[in-house]
Automatic annotation (TrEMBL), chain A:
Pfam families on file: Fumerase_C
Family (UniProt): Belongs to the class-I fumarase family.
Organism, as annotated: Salicibibacter cibarius
Keyword Ligase among UniProt keywords: no
Keyword annotations from UniProtKB, A to Z: Lyase
Entry protein name: Fe-S-containing hydro-lyase
GO MF, one example: hydro-lyase activity
UniProt keyword annotation of Lyase present: yes
Stored InterPro entries: Fe-S_hydro-lyase_TtdB-typ_cat, Fe-S_hydroAse_TtdB_cat_sf
Residues of the Fe-S hydro-lyase tartrate dehydratase beta-type catalytic domain: 9-176
Automatic annotation (TrEMBL), chain B:
Pfam families per the UniProt record, alphabetical: Fumerase
Lineage start: Bacteria, Bacillati, Bacillota, Bacilli, Bacillales
Protein known as: Fumarate hydratase
Superkingdom of origin: Bacteria
Family: Belongs to the class-I fumarase family.
Alphabetical list of InterPro entries matching this protein: Class-I_Fumarase/Tartrate_DH (IPR051208), Fe-S_hydro-lyase_TtdA-typ_cat (IPR004646)
Single GO MF descriptor: fumarate hydratase activity
EC numbers: 4.2.1.2
Every Fe-S hydro-lyase tartrate dehydratase alpha-type catalytic domain range: 11-278
Alphabetical UniProt keywords: 4Fe-4S, Iron, Iron-sulfur, Lyase, Metal-binding
Length: 186, 280
């Protein structure tokens, strides 16, 4: 099975070239942010204050890494459950966010917003944090350092393996995959 | 009366916390390997292969297999003829968690209060259950329970008239809803009977039984095998991307209950199935 190689940041063209089920190696910079950081970003948006990061064309990776051991760039760094960010995601997509990396179902609003804003949702393998840490070449905390594992980080990723779950055409790999294999065990 | 000093408990707990995060047990490795032979989806096989690579990297480099190093849950067996000296058991365990997670570069994932959500900074307090048993030993069973799978766990107070059919429907619905969120291939812990909280307790405790080991009651063992097949027929597959390996195992425990009651709890465990134990 082939793999596509995508260089970040994302553009409309790059997004349109990807379909649910495609296996992709991502290269470039992403933001790491999860629950607490999303809440703070949303509080600023609601207060009409400037965000500490520019979302245009960006990808957010839902991850809260373990502390780095001496000599490590970053600790274990696999995806966390994306659905917890669903309530914030349509707003962030409307502000230019182009992609997300996580694991697990998105709700209907998020799936509709992914189509509307020509965005994409990638799944990384949950629970493979040791392996994925090897694909991260640089890490800098860029906001909310007090949140510890939940701080916003800039990560430089290299050949980071993901699979397209929700594409801009409305396809959903979780749905299609489970439909294809339903009843095939017995 | 045999005496065990709290320092020995603290040191053992610190060791268990780290080794659980770094060294995936052989029962899980074997379950991955055998699922490679039966999985029908190419993406599914690829996922399992990466999970085997991940386990090897974690083991060799002494880094956590998953960044969610979990809430520290302990099932303690304390012999009636065993006396803890130099302090108390709960403090000794919490000190061990603090040391193990801190020295091991494990993630601090506990907030001091569910409402203000400030991180305690040392992954304490642990969740500790103690059962008194015959003998003079102290057995410490540890599990690092990650949030993703735990969040997909469910409990329902069924009616006795719902019967086995109702239980089965609830379990399968729970697995289906958990889907990719619970990081499949998963292990499904089911507690049937007891009371509201007892069903959840035995569901969680059932997960301590190694993968592939069936319940000693043949009737329950058959049910476990049937439900494994049913889970794998759901099509969810590794990471929910479609496939025939949804559950590596189903564990069931039962307990006496009220004539009016039929509690059922489903505690879901992700593939990062981290359990370690020691007897002092």
């Amino acid at each position: 099975m082939g793999q596509k190689i995508v260089t970040l940041p994302l553009t409309d063209e790059k997004v349109q070239d990807l379909k649910a089920g495609d296996r992709v190696l991502l290269n470039g910079d992403v933001y790491a942010a999860r629950d607490a950081a999303h809440k703070r970003l949303m509080d600023r948006i609601e207060a009409n204050e400037e965000l500490p990061i520019n979302l245009e064309g960006e990808v957010i990776y839902y991850v809260g890494p373990t502390p780095a051991k001496p000599g490590q760039v970053i600790g274990s760094a696999g995806p966390t459950t994306s659905g917890r960010m669903d309530r914030y995601t349509p707003k962030l997509l409307s502000l230019g966010l182009k992609g997300m990396i996580g694991k697990g179902y998105r709700n209907e609003e998020v799936k509709a917003a992914i189509q509307k804003y020509n965005a994409i949702y990638f799944g990384a393998i949950g629970g493979s944090g040791a392996l994925l840490s090897k694909k991260i070449q640089a890490e800098t905390v860029v906001a909310y350092e007090d949140l510890g594992p939940e701080a916003v980080r800039r990560l430089t990723i290299k050949d980071f393996p993901v699979t397209v779950i929700n594409d801009c055409y409305g396809n959903d790999l979780y749905q299609q995959g489970s439909d294809a294999y339903k009843g095939r065990q017995t | 009366m045999r005496e065990i000093h709290v320092d020995d408990i603290t040191d053992s707990v610190a060791f268990l916390c780290q080794t659980a995060s770094f060294d995936l047990d052989d029962d899980m490795i074997q379950a991955f390997q055998s699922s490679m032979k039966t999985e029908k989806s190419e993406i599914g096989k690829d996922v399992i292969e990466q999970l085997l690579d991940n386990a090897e990297i974690a083991k060799q480099e002494r880094i956590p297999m998953c960044q969610d190093t979990g809430v520290a849950v302990f099932f303690i067996e304390l012999g009636y003829d065993c006396k803890i000296t130099g302090g108390n058991l709960y403090d000794a365990i919490n000190q061990g968690v603090s040391k193990g997670y801190g020295d091991g570069y494990l993630r601090q994932s506990i907030v001091r209060d569910p409402l203000d959500r400030k991180n305690t900074g040392d992954n304490t307090p642990a969740i500790t259950y103690v059962e008194m048993v015959e003998g003079d030993h102290l057995t410490i069973r540890f599990t690092a329970k990650g949030g993703g799978a735990e969040n997909m766990s469910r409990l329902q107070m069924l009616k006795p008239s719902d019967g086995l059919e109702g239980i089965e429907a609830f379990v399968m619905e729970s697995v289906r809803l958990a889907g990719p969120n619970a990081c499949p291939p998963m292990i499904v812990g089911v507690g049937i009977g007891g009371s509201f909280e007892k069903s959840a307790y035995i569901a969680k405790k059932s997960l301590l039984r190694p993968v592939g080991v069936r319940h000693k009651d043949e009737r329950i063992a058959e049910l476990e095998e049937k439900w494994i097949e049913q889970c794998n027929d759901l099509g969810i597959g590794p990471q929910g991307m479609g496939g025939t390996t949804t559950a590596l195992d189903v564990k069931i425990e039962v307990h006496p209950c009220h004539i009016a009651a039929l509690p059922v709890a489903v505690n879901i465990q992700c593939h990062a199935n981290r359990h370690k134990e020691v007897t002092l």
